[in-house]
Specification:
The complex is a heterodimer. In chain A, about 60% of the residues lie in helices and about 0% in strands. Chain A is an all-alpha fold. In chain A, helix 1 packs across helix 2 and helix 5 packs across helix 8. The longest helix of chain A has 23 residues. Chain A is elongated and about 65 Å long. By secondary structure, chain B is mostly helical. Chain B has one domain. Chain B is about 75% helix and about 0% strand. The chains are: A mainly alpha, B mainly alpha. Chains A and B meet through helix 2, helix 3, helix 5, helix 6 and helix 8 of A and helix 1, helix 2, helix 4 and helix 5 of B.
């Protein structure tokens, strides 16, 4: 049975630490390397939270600029990437607040408190179900499905499962308790699974 | 073990953070419960699909434009 392995702890100093040191010493080109290394992830996280392309572009710029300005506050004992993601998540939430003036946005929005119930949809999926769709169709299905999740679930799923952050890192980043992150992650995974079943379920009469 | 108990440990099983004893109990439940087996397999697949497919691509042109803007500001000291 295959398992998804957690990311192993790092024993040696992360290569980003050396780059950060170079930037602190005035080497702007070293920052160029850090931006190129993480820009796709930051853009993706911003898109997931803001669900708006223009906002995601602004968040990406602002997050990297803010990180550059605040680089002195970065402590080498935390990962640069995690630190950067935290800035991007905050920027994304601020952007959402601006867009929905007068309406407070919080990570708790729309979250049901009910614990994971036994899934209703029992249908098994076709083997390699994504192969029944073109790349663009599949991307559209995945976008539409994740956009339908409550924000508080979506952000936890994205940070934990898409970006590979730990439960502890995710909790700290979103100012949530560890049990809250775990509960939301389970709900998010199960809801996504159920919604994807509509597209991926084995067709009746299809051979196993 | 009931299905509800299995489900409460589903994430820990997927994230490989269960003790060998608990894993054995979960496996035992799976042998007799098609429902939970389907839930486990399709939930794993859900995560794998989202991990392996880029749904918000950053096009090269946009990337370079944003990149140039960021670096120009950094060179000026932001």
């Amino acid at each position: 049975m295959s398992t998804i392995q957690p990311i192993a702890g790092e024993l040696e100093p992360h290569p980003d630490v050396a780059l950060v040191e170079r930037v602190r010493g005035g080497d702007v080109q070293a920052y160029d390397l850090l931006v190129r290394k993480y820009d796709r992830q930051i853009f993706r996280i911003a898109q997931h939270i803001t669900q708006n392309r223009e906002d995601a572009e602004d968040v990406m710029q602002d997050a990297f600029l803010k990180a550059y300005e605040k680089l002195d506050q970065f402590q080498g004992n935390s990962k640069f990437y995690t630190w950067l993601v935290r800035i991007a998540v905050n920027e994304s939430l601020m952007r959402l607040r601006k867009r929905r003036t007068g309406k407070m946005i919080s990570i708790d929005e729309d979250v049901e408190t009910e614990e994971g119930s036994v899934p209703r949809d029992l249908a098994d999926w076709a083997p390699d179900p994504e192969q029944n769709y073109s790349q663009s169709e599949l991307a559209e299905i995945l976008r539409k499905t994740i956009q339908g999740l409550p924000q508080g679930f979506r952000v936890v799923f994205v940070l934990r499962d898409v970006e590979g952050l730990s439960t502890e890192e995710t909790a700290e980043m979103l100012s949530l308790s560890i049990p809250a992150v775990k509960s939301r992650l389970l709900r998010a995974r199960l809801q996504l699974r159920e919604r994807l079943s509509r597209y991926f379920r084995r067709k009746k009469g299809a051979e196993k | 073990m009931t299905c509800t108990e299995f489900l409460a440990l589903l994430d820990d099983l997927i994230d490989d953070s269960v003790t060998p004893e608990v894993r054995a109990q979960l496996q035992q439940h799976l042998h007799g419960c098609e429902h939970c087996e389907v839930t486990l397999n399709t939930t794993r697949k859900t995560i794998e699909i989202y991990r392996s497919h880029e749904i918000y691509d950053l096009p090269a042109g946009l990337r370079e434009r944003l990149h140039a803007a960021i670096m120009a500001r950094c060179k000026k000291g932001c």
